[in-house]
Amino acid sequence: MFKQLILLCALSMPLIICAATAPFSGEISTQALLSDYDKFNEHYKAFTPTTQDIALMQKLEGKELIVLFGTWCHDSEREVPKLIKLLDASKVQLASIDYVAVGYNKQDDAGIAQAHDLQYTPTFIVKQNGKELIRVIEKPTGTLAQDLTQGL
Length: 152
What we know:
By secondary structure, the protein is α+β, with helices and mostly antiparallel strands. The protein has helices spanning 2-20, 30-36, 38-46, 51-56, 74-90, 112-115, 144-149, and strands at 26-27, 64-69, 96-101, 123-128, 131-137. Keywords: Signal.
């Protein structure tokens, strides 16, 4: 019986460790993201947008933007800071922007990721009047600015 108890404890330790280190999930501000997550801040500082990409971002004027990402995801660490820098540099006025971090299961408590059928992180969704216009998944095919504004 004692051996079984020890085995049970040993097998449950990884679950306890994972639960204690679960990634942040929920809405987050860019300020909190860049100050609390070093990799995001490093990529933000390292990225220099082109003049063309800054100009392209103006096509997002008045649009809604939803950014679904993982603080644990290397693609998110690379792409989300690019978006933040592009928005900062272009000063485009969006109707709204929501940054929603998801857990390893690609869900958040508010159900935003589920409502937008999140499959891969990051996913950038451009909307107008609640209607989805553009979805950029994981890694853009061109530059992030080109993909976010394609067809606008």
